[in-house]
Amino acid sequence: IKRFNDFTSSVAQATGSAADVYHGCFRILCGLFKKAVLADALGRAAGTISMSTTRWQAWEAMLAYSLSLYLDFSAYSDFAIGVSRLMGIRVPENFNWPYFSSNIQDFWNRWHMTLSFWVRDYVFTNTGRQLFKTRMKARPGAIAAASYLATFLVVGAWHGLSPNFLVWGAYHGVLVTAFHFYKTSLPLSVATSAFYQSRAASLAGMVVTFLLVTIGWVFFRMDVPSAVRVLRLMLVN
Fold first, then answer.
1. At what angle do helices 18-32 and 55-86 cross, to 10 degrees?
2. Which position among 23, 159, 172, 180 bears the catalytic label?
3. What does the alpha-carbon distance between residue 100 and residue 205 come to, in Å, rounded to a whole number?
4. CA separation for the pair 101, 98 (Å, rounded)
5. Residue 228 phi, psi dihedral angles, 5° rounding
6. Percent helix, strand, coil in the chain (nearest 5)?
């Protein structure tokens, strides 16, 4: 998702050079490797989840799907960035190692960044601004929650106007809202403690974030009734 002024400016300034061709070709090859070698292999490993699937098979399939989805999406972005670079046109990065995020908010600053920043500027900010003009202005926490939920419902609808995408968007809206309240209520003594700032805590945050995102992909992958059945298999049965 490119901003009009930024893109037209980049096109106007495009000159093209041997370095641009080199970097463009390299980026396209990276995308091809991600797609043809990694994403397709993981996609086959993800397979299907049937009635006879065990809990661990379901987790294995969803973890493979989670990785293949990222590699697929980022490969397409690599193609777009690389082809543009061949002509000397710079387009923004779209993924920044999102599965290394230490929390869900950080994840959305790294995943599909052009979409994340677009909804931040045009949905989240405007929703909050409008709500502050109402009686809700005395409850900033409620405004934040409503703004996050509205924003991620738009993100879900952007992927498709079907119940599973809307549920997926609402799920992430709830996660980001919960993290917002967690972050704002965290005592300063804890936030600045050696353990909270340690690599171990950061790694634990990465693992938890990746698992939460992977659980959400269940709704992204299938219709709501099937997703509920798979989640029961993964988390309960």
1. 160
2. 159
3. 9
4. 5
5. -60, -40
6. 80, 0, 20
Structure tokens at 36: 């043809």
Would you call 159 a catalytic residue per the annotation? yes
- Residue in the block written with tokens 């919960």: 178
Phi, psi (rounded to 5 degrees) for 160: 165, 140
Residues 155, 169 contacting (CB under 8 angstroms)? yes
Does the predicted TM-score (pTM) go above 0.90? yes
Task: Say if CB 69 and CB 29 are below 8 A apart.
Answer: no
CA-nearest of 123, 115, 79 to 94 is 115
Contacting residues for 225 by C-beta, under 8 A, at least 6 apart = none
CA 94 to chain centre: 10
Q: Is 116 exposed, middle or buried (0-12, 13-18, 19+ CB in 10 A)?
A: buried
Output the tens digit of pLDDT for each of the chain's 237 residues.
888 888 898 899 888 899 999 999 999 999 999 999 999 999 998 988 876 688 899 999 999 999 999 999 999 999 999 999 999 999 999 999 999 999 999 999 999 999 999 999 999 999 999 999 998 999 999 999 999 999 999 999 999 999 999 999 999 999 999 999 999 999 999 989 999 999 999 999 999 999 999 999 999 999 999 999 999 999 987
Cβ(117)–Cβ(70) under 8 Å? no
Q: How far is CA 85 from CA 14, 167, 235, in A?
A: 9, 37, 45
